[in-house]
Predict the 3D structure of the following.
Amino acid sequence: MSGGPFVPEDPAGALAAFLDSLRGERLLFFPVRHHSPACAWHLRQLIREARPASVMIEGPETFDRFVVDLQRAETVPPVAIYTHVVERQVPRGGRGEAREERRIGSFYPLCDYSPELVALREAAAVGARVGFCDLDYPRQVRCEEADLRERRRLTSLLSEAQLQESAYLRALAKRHGCRDPHELWDRLFESRFREIATHDFVRQVAAYCWFARAHAPAARLERDGTVAREAHMAARIHRELTRLRRAATGRAREAGSEATGPLMVVTGGFHTPALALGWARSWKVELPPPAPAEQVLEALIPYGFAQLDALNGYAAGMPSPGFYQRLWETAGESAGAIHEAVALDLLTELPARLRKAGASLQLSTADAIAAFAQAVLLARARGNDGPAREDLLDGMRSCFVKGELDVEGQLVLDLALELMRGDRVGRLPPDVKLHPLVADFRAQAEALRLERDTGTPRELALEIYRRPRHRQISRLFHRLAFLDVPYARCVGGPDFVMGRDLDLQIERWECAWSPLADGALIEKGLYGSTIEQACVALLREHLERLEEEHGEVGALEAVRAVTLCLRLDLGEHLPALVGAAHARLAAESSLGQCAEAAAQLQALVRLPGPFAAGAAPDVERLAIAAYERSCLLVRDLPRCPPAGETEALAALTRLRELVVEAQVGDGSAADATAAGPPDAPTPAVPAPPPAGPGGAAVLDAALLWPAARAALADPGAPEAIRGGLAGLLFACGQLPAAELEAHVLAGLQGIGPQGSTAPAYLHGLFTLCREITWQFPAIVRRIDELLGRWDDQEFDRALPFLRLAFAQHTPRETDRVALLLKELHGSESPLDWYSRLLDEAFVHGNVALAARVEAALRRDGLGHFLAEPVPR
Amino acid sequence: VDKEDLGMVTPEATATPLKLPAEGFFATELAALAATDRDPRPEGWRLSPQAVKTFVLGNGGRALRHRVDGVEVELPITRKYYGDELLVERAVVTLLGNRGLLLVGEPGTAKSMLSELLAAAISGDSTLTIQGTAGTTEDQVKYSWNYALLLAEGPSRRSLVPGPLHRGLERGQIVRFEEITRCQPEIQDALVSVLSDKSMMIPELGDEQRVLLARRGFNVIATANLRDRGVNEMSSALKRRFNFETVPPIRDRQMEMELVRRQAEQLLAEAGVALRMPEDTLDLLVTTFQDLRLGRTEEGATVEKPTTVMSTAEAVAVGFAACLDAHYFGGGRAGGEHVTRQMVGTVFKDNPEDAKKLAHYLNVVAKARARRGGAWKAFYESRSLLEG
């Protein structure tokens, strides 16, 4: 095949030849558009009329094993076959052996009006053999020359991209005054399907698709795997024909009966020309080897209209499945009458929806009548027998929107599209073998009385302390979230893993079932056959990473794995994780990580949440270990690199909080020196709604002070760290005021390679103990003197660091310091620091100008012009 | 079209009118459509809905063959409105029904032109127009009196001076209400009963003539700007009697270029200037307007939107002015520098910030495009015009 589009020399003749090839004595082709009610209706007619002996359907041939289940009446569409294949690929910038694994998955969605499903069920009714004839999914994936990394989302095996993106059909749509090929299809086929005889209908659909195919670039067909798939389908059809012929001759020899029915081939219309005209038979395609079974997963799952809607971005097929479902279900004499009945239904339902949504705009019956009339008139003006989907939407645009389309109209149109989308979710017979993970999820959801049948999001408020059922729901949700199953999303509540908002008692979740949840569960099938097993396996993966000796996992992450394990209520796996965390802590060299880990663990001990209570001793020991490691690392602070100073100061703050809290928890109040190890009350188990700080692990403050003093005494310690340590010791009563004053005085006089180191020192000091500024006027006076000595250049250089230092103060505290300064300078002017009239650039400009004027005057010997005469 | 019948006075012998209404300007096209129109016409309509649509959107350049005074004539129907075709379809269908049509959208999106074209095609008369202002009174909308006759004869049909709405009802024609939201709400609401009952009460007249019933073909096309300053909110009673259509700015660059080219050429021809806008200048003009309108450049960079509306109508005005500038004051070829000069006066009216935004656009966006040479280069180099 060459690269360009195949356009025959004699298009009319070629088309006629194609149309004649559709209907042979032994072979019938039915080109369909996936998810088209009109195609489904005519296909049903044709199967009943032609009574084929065998029906072959476009779809991976491995799906044959689902045929029986799909044919059963208890299978209520929409349903889908989910499939994925695990591909191994050399990562980008490929380094030899290391291959990354990637799962590539797709859905094969079927609804009531899918021609494929109708073919499956009608074939059974006429006793025909039925099966799928397309290449199996893994080989389809491998024939497609796409970078697998780009296929991050699940696609549909029944996508209409080739028709939808056909330049020819787009141009044709434009000429007919249609927005896109969807609307063109509706106009040409759906809006009058009843009025066309089945054989004419088939020929018209075939012609429609033939034009799209004839103008499709051949190079693209090869690239996207179409060629390989069609060659395979052609071979399958040929085999089936041979088989039928043999069977027929065999039977004829036996019974002398007449020949059996034909073979009917139901594929997307885009493929029909290649199959019917025998092009695909001549293509020599080398197929990749089939994938080993353990890399492939296939499962029948319930599906939803929300996922079927092309407008939702799933690239499925047709937009608004709810609308077409109504067309399929509504009885009527003609296509026009059916469309009108559906339009009337929808137009009367929408105002009620709008009321329910609490929209300010209310629509009356008069509006519905006007919109109906508008839709019908528009349909007539456009040559549709009844209002097609876009006519109906246009009717709403005209009559339901009171204002601008993209402002007032948005809510109405969104609701209209939602209504036309429908919220139907399919069901499978109870005995269909579900994927075990999905089955486990179902069973748990049912036991917890969670609704699973609508796709509409709901918000749940779980009282995780008071109600056992809520606790169980929360546990399930957390486990699903851990498995990346898009079912429930936590939107508020205590976060035990990150240690935030632990005092909250209610967890808020947004939950909505979607078939993607089943899909995600099925994907996790490689981890285990129950949710708990899968979680454990995934945790174990975490653990393996933690246990790698030279791994890059920090202590904090190891500790978080512990809290996560508790949150998932997998307590029996805790010891291994705790062991790993201890090992990580012992190897951790970052004070920040250790202090943060200690803080989080301490929070967990104090507020164990609904699940961690039983593990208190383990967690407590871990918290103490983290604290002890932190104290040890404090001794290393003098060697802290400049980039780590901020983190180190934050860690010191953490430690200060921890020690102070532990003392408050002991009831030994602020007397820090007395912080010995008295008997700490063990954490209340199980924790009722936490009120105030409960018990906490006993942290031995006596470990911290020597470490801090030793670090402070180190002459090589960076100024910021020195300030921070001094602040810490003073704030906790470990440094007498006089010593502090002397220390600060020394700190303010420091000179480094870039000038004064005072700002860095102050930054450290204020981070740990900013109350110094208003408790010790003497220190403020020292700072004031220091600043007074600086010239403008020095001050400008230090300004950013000074800002950083003083930024710790709250506005009220800043005012207190300002008042102090006012007293110091004996200023009379009222305290008004905030000038909104002048901006910074203006003041700077004028200050610079004043300096230049002064310099110029002095240069010219006119210094005496200045207010302060120059000393002679 | 019988001009006397429309009440138009044209001093034919002495001068040409400055601007003809659509039914006068496109008289030959309307006649050709009427002669060839095979689709059924609603009662009171001069053309079938299909032909109305063709009149507005053109027939793609195909010549309509018909006979005028026994002579075979071929005439293509030109495209007059360059926006959304589906919108025109919906508008025509709305006018067939019993609700009025309200065209809303930003200034300069051809709402008034569309209303004029529809009225001309449907009723053959686009002059039954009420211009909504803060000072519009109810008698300007409905009817007033010839006071001399009123004193002499008392209220009678003879002493009544019909306003546009009265005429529309009486003759079964489309009435245009421009800028309806600029009117006081009580004046707007004069339409409520007329639109729902399709009749007008004239209590001053005797019993037989008290009610004026609308003839078929009557309807109202109103235009409104919902976001502008100084507009009045419409009552929900009136909103219910209208179908709203939002007229969007033209998004397709080729289409907008085509429209600006045609309109500017038409204006230049009327002004007697034999000058055409060079293609690169046109491209520059339309691209600049689209970039500033959307706040995003062709390349995808964000630019600040001016407060003025960057409508197609303004682009035409700038293009026309730039050509006049080039014709009378320099060069004879309209380039980028003429566009800059005219944009400041024509588009940026009262907000000095807007000129700064244009300067930024020139310094950043136009600079990159100046490498293409031509108009973009001249445009960029003219940035000094914006300073000071």
User: Anything to note?
Assistant: Residues 253-270 of chain B form the longest helix (18 residues). Chain B has a mean pLDDT of 86.
